[in-house]
Amino acid sequence: MKYSEFEKALSVARLNKYLHACGGNKVMALNLYRNNIKLCQKFYGLINIFEVILRNAINNHYIMSLSDTDWIIHQTAPDLMLDSCPYKSEIQDNARILTANGRYSNDRIVSAVTFGFWTYLFTRTPFRLGGQSLHRIFPNRTQGLGQRAIYNELMEIKRFRNRIAHHEAICFDSLGNKNTTYAKESYALILKYVDFLGYKKEHLFYGMDVLPDGVIDRIDKM
User: What pLDDT is stored for residue 214 in this prediction?
Assistant: First the structure.
């Protein structure tokens, strides 16, 4: 395919950022675009596992602390933890659909709500109404690390996750220059929270090609 055909298929606006970063070299721009996709693929499985272990840790914490296996639904009641939650309608709609289909269970409602819901639980109001103990799901957290700092770092992971989910680039700096620092720092942050949760990356990601250094090296050398 000619470069113009790639522009038609992928859009001029999408490719221009790669073209700019490669000094107008069209071959290099397409190679950078492909390597960005490969880098996103490397991170996809890691982020997927991180989401699962985080939400399970939160769910298990509240099942125990609230003595309620259906805490997500029950806490949407007036004046409780999730009464003013921006995900309240999503939770209730999912519960309604699952119940109507005879498929409702705690596991299914946990799987149905988005990653944004789990990060939201570290904002001030639900953290307070939930007993101010949610940070205890991170037994290996840095001493003194509190609710606000945890929320801010989880939001960084969420933004990185969303860029990948929405097919955006993770190989540029804020000025549009080719740079893998953002990907490296996001990777380190994910691994930090995996450790905070009490897991070793060597065990959790066993058999996976976790460290995306091969792709990063190719991007760095372009």
Answer: 84
Residues 6+ apart with CB under 8 A from 172: 17, 21, 178, 179, 182
211: left (phi over 0), alpha (psi -120 to 50) or beta: beta
Within 10 Å of residue 46's Cβ, how many Cβ atoms?
Answer: 21
What local confidence, expressed as pLDDT, does residue 212 receive? Answer: 61
**Does residue 153 sit in helix, strand or coil?**
helix
Q: Rg of the Cα trace of the chain? A: 20
Cα 4 to chain centroid, rounded: 34
| Cβ proximity of 53 and 199 under 8 Å | yes
Strand, helix or coil at 217?
Answer: helix
Low-confidence spans in the chain with pLDDT less than 70 = 209-212
